[in-house]
Amino acid sequence: MTNTSTPRPPVVVIAPDSFKGSLTAEEVAAAIGAGIHAAIAGAEVRLRPIADGGEGTLDALMHAGGERLAISCRNAAGQFAEAPVGMLKDGSAVIESAAIVGLTDAAGTAVAVERRSTLGVGDAMKKLLDRGARHFLVGLGGSSTNDGGAGLLAALGVVFYDAHGDVVAPQPAELHRVVRVDASGIDGRIKEAKIVAMSDVDNPLCGDVGATAVFGPQKGVTPEQVAELDRTLGHFASALEKELGRSAADKPGAGAAGGLGYALLMLGAEFRSGAETVADHIGLDDALAGADWLITGEGRSDAQTLHGKAPFIASQRARRAGVPTTLLSGGIDRKSLAELQGSFSGCFSIVFGPGSLQDAIADAPQLLRASAEQIARLWQTAAAARQ
């Protein structure tokens, strides 16, 4: 006899990363949620946008509530502009490096990479210190800088001198001149602060897998510049470590954000997976309790997704909770599908057929909704068959 009972509506957790340059994680989650409700009207949908420390980290963390602020700080080119930061309900201050010295900032990247600095990240930290912040969450992905965090340190009061006693600008093109570092004027409130550096990168500062060699080219470092700028960061680190009496150049994460991770480590920061940190703050584990299904995704998924990216971390949390995970991304690398299937019970792209990237970006909300609806209909059919 056929069982005609209606299956229980599912509890669906939706925890995607942003579609970089197109939709925020919150917008992606909302579009997927609309698709789920179009297919299963009674579904309980729990939205938990996630990020891994790069672009979109502030938005993901602010989804849980808090105060968003616009502050004036320097971009990568040293020009003052407004940038967003956040104060969470628990008192944590959020700084997203990509929002201050990011690769997508046309004004900040108008100058060559050897002339960019992280001064603005230090500006943001000082202004948040002024507001009473003593716990910082600093996202390190998506930066356009390669200054070893010299700009951050300079903004906080560290001074760099050359052999003639002249002050050296905190830019990669100048750091080879540094022979002495004076950290006596560093903002004393930093010693009271707890800093969490968030990234999915574990590279050291220098060497073949360091900041310049691995990430420099995407920021504009030419092949001819790699060795020279790498030596410059090593020279800068030697001078800084002599002054501070500690070392961090070889620690995992020192190479994140062009060495901004190194400067934060030198200030005593704790280095954590960005996606794990965000997952904790947005209450992903609580959302997964009693859930039937997790949907996650990102702009494009490939083998790198499995190296600490937000969808992978979300899937691992779901696996521990006994919840199956579907990956719904803007694009899926076909060659990586076999690897991805080890962590996701299904991998889907939102693109229905050939078309331009521009059209896919413009239509992303509708594509997400339509794809999520079709996946939900499949899920519903399978659930009914199991009854």
TrEMBL record:
One of its GO terms (molecular function) is glycerate kinase activity. It comes from the Bacteria. InterPro entries: Glyc_kinase_flavodox-like_fold, Glycerate_kinase, Glycerate_kinase_RE-like, Glycerate_kinase_sf. Keywords: Kinase, Transferase. It holds the Pfam family Gly_kinase. GO terms for biological process: organic acid phosphorylation. The keyword Transferase applies. Belongs to the glycerate kinase type-1 family. This is Glycerate 3-kinase. It comes from Herbaspirillum frisingense.
